[in-house]
Amino acid sequence: MSNAKVLFYVQHLQGVGHLYRAARIARAMTAAGLAVDLVSGGRPVPGLDMGGATLHPLAPLQCPDGDFANLRDGQGNPIDEAFKDRRREALLALFRDSAPDAVIIEAFPFGRRQMGFELLAFLEAAASRDPQPVVVCSVRDILQADKKPERIRETVDRVNGFFDFILVHGDPAFAALEETFPAAGEFAAKVHYTGLVADPAPAGESAEDGNEGDQAGGEVLVSAGGGATDSGTLLRAALAARSLSTLKDRPWRLLAGPNLAGDERAALEAAAPEGVTVEANRGDFPSLLSRCAVSVSQAGYNTVAELLRAGCRAVVVPYSAGGETEQSFRAARLRERGLAHAVEEAALGPETLAAAVDAAYGGPAPETGGIDLDGAENSARLVQSWLNR
Questions:
Q1: Contact 32/145 with Cβ under 8 angstroms?
Q2: What average pLDDT is seen over the chain?
Q3: Which among 134, 137, 131 has a CA at the least distance from the CA of 119?
Q4: What is d(CA 238, CA 376) in angstroms, rounded to the nearest whole number?
Q5: pLDDT category, 321, cuts 50, 70, 90?
Q6: Sorting pLDDT into bands at 50, 70 and 90, what band is 103?
Q7: Residue 23 lies in a domain
Q8: Range of the domain at 240
Q9: Which residue stretches of the chain are H helix?
């Protein structure tokens, strides 16, 4: 369908990974000729690359303390029913005005249950419109473990009641949806794997190069994603680990995400010795990865996709506070396949991190071939094919 319109909803509450992945997919869809309206319900992210998509911000919601049942507005104040009513009406008005041919909702109903106050009404509006839009869920490959049978049943019922297709942004050869959502077989016909959503390799660089060309003089690159998930602990450990590592004479670069508290970043800058750079996240992060001796990071979806694209030696420290399981699962899978070394968050310290950096540097470059990393382009092709039917 030429000039088809897509309305893509995404809500980031703590980090920015959900939004970055959605924006990457939106760019691929616009490049494929689709008209995309991206609805973002989180705090603004300066410099977000939207490609040809149009961004429609809702009144922002966040969970700065990690308590996802405790929604706050953009100023950190608790929200009330009136706030929810205004958000819901704004979303429904956008749906009516844009009249999309396809609706894509990121995470829900597998996650973002707290957004049901607006998303259920949104889905009901899509189901009652004539003609109905194609309704798609966009979800990462590894989910947070949920042991409550009633929630699993609720998710299955919502998938089967509202959604035509599920875009799973992963490669089943690396991680299949049913490994972290065992009931996925109840809607297996709707599931389509896209591959991981990663940016293209920088011009002239690829994972097949094995990261060997620059490793001899490369830096240690420490990144903390958006900086919302206790990333200061990782950055402080890396700063202290440098003097204990065989790479202590190399430059170390610490990238502090936009959500890292200003006083924490100032303290890191003050403590950084000669040879250590502390700076904000950079747009050329993929190029930095492709040239580094070792990458040190958490194990979030976007970061790991970029690690696999770069093919660099890596150490991951999965975020696991508050019962989080997603990053630990991903880190374990990387370790099993020889794609990264892992340090559990509970064991993180200067000594353990330095030892892991040295082990990664001394080992072979990871062989990432065979893992599909073209998830954005594949997502665009799938959506286009469904609209063409």
A1: no
A2: 92
A3: 137
A4: 32
A5: confident
A6: very high
A7: yes
A8: 207-362
A9: 17-31, 81-98, 116-128, 149-162, 212-215, 231-241, 262-271, 285-291, 301-310, 326-336, 350-362, 375-388
Tally of structural domains, the chain: 2
- 369 within some domain: no
Q: Which of 296, 236, 222 is nearest to 272 (CA)?
A: 236
Domain of 318: which CATH number?
A: 3.40.50.2000
**Structure-token match 């603004």, residue found:** 44
Beta strands 294-297 and 276-280: pairing type? unpaired
Whether 141 and 281 map to the same domain: the answer is no
Q: Residue 381 corresponds to which tokens in the numbers above?
A: 């092709």
Each residue's pLDDT tens digit, 226-251: 655 567 899 999 999 999 999 999 99
How far apart, in whole angstroms, are the C-alpha atoms of residue 34 and residue 46? 24
Tokens coding 377? 């382009």
Q: Collect all residues with Cβ–Cβ distance below 8 Å to 218 and sequence separation of at least 6.
A: 211, 250, 291, 292, 293, 294
pLDDT at 369: 81
Integer Cα distance of 148 and 347 in angstroms: 29
Helix boundaries (H) for 242-337? 262-271, 285-291, 301-310, 326-336
* Interatomic CA distance for residues 366 and 208, integer angstroms: 10
Q: Residue 324 in contact with residue 300, Cβ under 8 Å?
A: no
How far, in Å, CA of 311 to CA of 218, rounded?
14
What mean pLDDT comes out for the span 171-191? 97
Distances (CA, A) of 288 to 44, 310, 372: 25, 9, 22
- Cis bond upstream, residue 131 (ω within 30): yes
